[in-house]
Each structure stands twice: as C-alpha cells, then as structure tokens.
What does this fold into?
Amino acid sequence: MLAVALLWGPFAGGSTPLRVPSDPSDAQAVEAVAFGPSEIRVYWNAASGARSYSVLRDGVPIGSVDAPHTQFSDRGIQPGRNYSYAVAVQTEAGIGAPSRPYVERADGPVPALIECDLLVVGATTAGVAAAVVAARYGVRVVLIEETRRLGGMSVNGLGASDIRRAHHASGFFQEFRAGVASHYGVGDGLRYEPRVAHQVMKEIIWAAPGLTVFRRTRPTSVRTRPVGDRTARRTVAARTIEWVAVERVCEEGAVAVAGEAPRPQQAAALRIERGRIRPKLVIDATECGDVAAWAGAPYRVGREARSPREPHAGHIYYGRAGDRILPGSTGRADKRIQAYAYLMTVRDYGRGADRTVARPEGYDEANYRHAPAWPRSWNATSGKLPNNKYEINQHPYGSDLQGVNYGYPEASYTERRRLEALFRNHALGYLHYIQTIEGLRNIGLSDDDFRAEGGWPSQLYVREARRFEADTVMDETDILSARTLVRPDAIGIGDYAMDSHATQPKVDPNTADMGEGEFYLPQYTPWHQVPFRIMVPKSVDNLFVATAVSATHVAYGTYRMEPVRMHFGTAAAVGAVLCLRHGLRPRDVPATQVQVELLKHEAGTPERIARDGVGASGPSSHPTLLYMWSDVTPTTPGYRAIQWLGARGFNPCPPPAERTAASMLAAQPFGPDEPLRRGEMRRLLAIMALRAEASGDRFRAPDPGGAATEVVTRADAARALVEGFGWGPHAGPSRYADLPKAEGDAAEALAAWGIDVQVWSALGSRDASGRPLFEGSKPITRGQFAQWLHLAHRFVGPLFFDHPMDLAPSIAVPIGEPDRS
It folds into this structure.
C-alpha cells in the first residue's frame, strides 16, 4: 500500500498539494552525518514490517541492525573521502531495494597551519556557493563552519524559499532548486524539508574538486598587515589578512543541542583543535562578519535615520493596510536590530498523536496569547512544506523574540550562546502554547530533520547583524529606482520585498502596526539588479563580504534572502578566481569579466575544470539573470549578449504606470525574434556612441534614416555599424556567396572584424557549395542585432577591464523615446 507525502508549491496558501508516492516498506529519510574524522552515522525512519535493516556503503553491505533501531555508526572510514550510504529493509518477504544514496565525507583534523588560495568563512548559502564555485575553477579552497550543517538557513528550517516568482530564479540557486525538485521527483523545488535541503547541498559540495571543509570550526582571531596605497580613491589605510586562527570542537560520540552547554556526560567527549589558516584571499560569508570586522573593515549596526531617500528608515510604526507610517514614529537612527528566531520545522503527526514538548524555562502563556490560531497562522497558510511539515516563522507574536539581540552582532561566542538559549526557549514556548492552549498536541517537532543535532536546528536565524561599508552603499531609493537606474555591475536579480521584522515587542495587539520596526514593502520593491561592488569592503585588500553587504537597514531587507545570498557567494568566488589568476585586488576586479562567467551554461567538474573566458566551463550549471524580460530565457538565442547589454541599460524595462506589488514584479517582453525598427536602432547606436566618447574610442551614431517604425534589414544594420566605426571596404575575397563585391562592402567589412551572420547560427543559410549567405534583404531581429552590438563592444572601451560608464549606475534611456528624425 502506498503512503502519500505532500509537496506544496511556492504559494501554498491556496494551492493544491502535489502528491509524492512512497512505499512504507522502504527505508525513508536516510541521512549520513560525519562525527569526527573516523565516524559517520547513518539515520533513517522506521519502515513498516521491518525485521532488520542492512546498511550499504558504496553499494556494499557493511552491517545491519535489528528493528526497531534506526541508526548505524560506520567507523571504518577515512577523512576527506566521499562515501555513499543506503539502507535496505529486511521483511518477512525478503530484502528490499536500497534507498536513495546519501553522500557524506568526514572532516580531517585541523592542522597547525593550512595554506590555501581562498578561505571561505561560514557555510551559509553564500558561503557554500562561494566555496563550491571557487573549487570548480581549480582553486584550493578551505571552508569553515561553526556548526555541523552546511547550507545556512536553507538547511536550518527556512524551507519556504524567499522568492516571489519561480522564473526569477537563476544561477546557483537554480542549481540548488533543480536538485531539490530532482530529489522529490515532482514540484518546482521552492519548498523543502531541512533534511532534503542538506542532502542536496552536500551532493553539490562533495562533488566540487579540491574543497576542504572543517565543520564545528570557528575563527578566533585575525592577523593583518598594512599594504601600500596604490589607489588615489582610497581614504582609509588598507590592510591585508595574513592568517586566521581557528578552533574546532572535536566530537567523540557527543551530540550537542543548540543553545545548551555540553551535558556533564558529554564534557569528556569534547576536545579542541586549534590551527591557523593562511589564505591569499578571504570571503567572509557569515551574518556577523567577525573576520571582516577583526581585520578592520568598517561596518554599521542598527538603523539609519529617516531621510528623503529613505522614508521608511529609523524608528517606525508601519501600517501595512493603507501603506501608512503611523503616529509615534520618530524616524531616529538607533542601534536596534530586527528580531531573530529559531525556525522550527514541525510535522502534523495526525489525530490522537501527542508530541507535546516540555514547558521551557521562562515560559509565559501571555507571550503568545495574541498569535493567530494555527489555521490562520503564517505557519499553516504559507509555511507548508513537503511530507506534512511546516516552517514556523510567525511574528510579531510567535517564534520571533524582539529586543534582546541588539548586542548579538558584536558579542563574544559565549554571549551569543546565552542569547541563543533565550531564543530557543521562546520558540519552544510558542510550540508548547500551540500544543496545550490551542490543543494541537499532534503538531510536534520533526523527528527526522535534525537527528544529529538532538532534534533542533543548529543555526539561529540572524536576519541582520553587521553591514560592511563599501564605496557603494545601497539604500531604499536605489531599490525603488531599479526601473530608471541600471547597474552595469549586476551579478543577479533580487526578488523579494524590502522588509524588517519588529525591533521591539508589540505591546498593544489592537494597533495597526506589527511592532515597532516592522515593515513589508512589496510595492516599493521591484525586481532589481544586485550589484557586485557592495561586496568589496573598505580598508581590507584581500577580502570579499558575501552576506553582510554594504546597504542600509531598509535596503538590506531584500538582500538578506537566501537566493540573493547565493548570487553574492557565486560572484565573490568568481571575483576571487580573477584576483588569483590575474593578480588583482577585489576592488580592481572588472564586473564585466564576472558577468562573462555568470552567463555560462556549464559548471566546472573534476574532469573539466572551469576557466575564466569564453568557451570554458563556468561557476554553475544554470546561467545567471543580470536583467529581466518576460520572454528571454537561457535557451533564447543570444542570451548572453541580451543579458550583458541589459545590465547596461540598452533595453530597459520601463517603470509601471502604477506602483503596486504586482506591477513592480512585472517584466516587459524583449521580443528577441521581432524585427528591429529604425527608431530602436537609432537609440541603441546613440548609447553606443556615448560609450565610445566616454572611453576615448571612435564611434559616431549614424542616422539610419526612415520612419521610426520601419523594419531594419541585415544590410541596413551592417551599413550602420560599419559607418559608425568608419571601417573601410574589405580588400579580401567575398565571404558571402550571395553578395557581389560591389554590393557587399558593408557586410564584408563587418565580417572582416568578426561580426557576421554565423554568430547567430554556424549552420545558417548556405549555397550548394557550403558558402554562407548574407540575405541582406531579410529583417534583422532584435536578438540578432543584440549579438552584433555585443561583439561590437570589443572596439569600444577596454577589452578586459570595465568600461568607464560601467563603474557607476546610470539613468536608463526609455525604450519609448519619441523619434526625432
């Protein structure tokens, strides 16, 4: 008999559940977790009718346990080597098929000194993306993570992806999402159990070549040295990180519970390893950014004051209904931080089940009395996950605890553990309230998501901590103006509303706000370009910051989402690769070269290491969106050219006539297969001429003549580009079979510079002898002209470094500019 698991879509409040068939006689939820360098523990759920379970390593049985036991310890392993584990169920009818394999690797001991190309601090989603991507380029990468789990909040309870439209996903997040969908065999991969997310992350991590991982390892200090000031723009003396001291908690049979000190019987099982890591470059991917701060990078904590550019900044009571800033809001700057929480994963165990947790220390029913009843809570309406589970993320009354975390970003590890215990008890108190006061004892903590962590997520949801200062600091207006400003250093698309959870407890449940400091601004947050340079902090020469990026409190509300953090991690890794290969500092990395890598369709593998430049493998199996059109996908011919030009405002998406949550999400079509019109070509050539002038190169925008709506032919487009560059006739033999020499001057001259019809398709029209046909009377499509224009940029501005106009945002020239001919 088949059981049924539920997999919900991205907007589960009113969606129909997808059904994932499973067989209760098979081993389910198999998981393998490393404990120290010589032990991997295998877990699974009990199977119906099981007499015993056989555990297989790399397809070979290595042991068995009798039911009802559902755990096995493999101590015959070597650190640093991948192992694949599966479980087969023995019933009266015989032994079943092995489960889906689970890949795990044990970490080796921490040496006294490690030298590497790149140190990634923190296995957040940004940190995992950074470490994996850099390793795919053959870089020697060390990734350290304070907990045992790899993947940040995506593997610690945040199972409902914070992205508003699935087709806005791209890059490393799309790779992760595809892995989730493949695991379930159904759905779009935007909802996942923490255990499944962790499995997908590990499959990606352990496939990366040359990546060394140390879990339960944290930084303790940083050694820096001063460097010479080679840049006139710098106003703060720069330093470079020489080494980072780390310590690692080594476990010998111990199971730690988040927020608790080791129990007495565990104390003897824990020992500390200490070492130093000497990297050439560092990516600090943690929320708090301790390494970046200890190295001397300047940062902000708290909220900026209200200003014309940031009307929602500072002390604020906000009414979502009516989009109102309420009386009592002062707009003053302060050190307050939005609430943190543990995102519990719970399961509905069915009628009659009792999964009640004990009353936690400090429990007060009054703290949760005004939380919405379970059927109306965010947890039940929006937090639905596969297999009858739910993400708990209710606020302001619920799992959030406001007002106690202001010192957390700069606190010691000991103080952070003390604060985490408060958050743990508060979250458990909310669950206890649901179970006892609401009478839902069948709603209990998931029993198969955090088995190696004592049933509790390792990571507190630190929504915001330090924010490091770069030369660019993004603010609310920068995000709001994403339709009129273009950011040529884009490394992805952001697609979530600027928001903040409350910074203080909500005292009166009858007021229109959700607590002081809370706001949610979808109508002010279009999808927007995510800039590269906000990851390059001031003052430290060999450092990227991939999570605590340079933004105000309000703007950071859209950058703190996991899909965007994966963009930051990917781009930081590509930037590090360029630094290592070309002898650059992070602030010198050309965004255009980062974009060349992000637009690739193939990820580097151990057999085919990624390389920067055209024609080689890149950072991910899915290209990144640098700009958004409703009809441009990675399979669109000319995708790379269209995206590269889009990042620079050649075809901007116009702002909507009305500012609403839905309109700010909408994207206009590009029309890659539509014929180019003369008015459009005139505008595009004018932008090209501005770029040539800014770089000191020669290109003047020719007037193509004719009406703005007249279709441009291939011959017209060739003449315009050749005339703009002033290229003379090609002296060699004719390339095209259908162009007599006298008629083909422009086409032949263009082809001589590497711009011809074969860039659209190497298998395009040809004559009987195989010579290409130009077919000059045919209309040139918008996508085809984009490819020509992209190639023409080789002759406008630097070949490797960024064009002068790409060093700062610019105002987009509207597509609908009237024709002035």
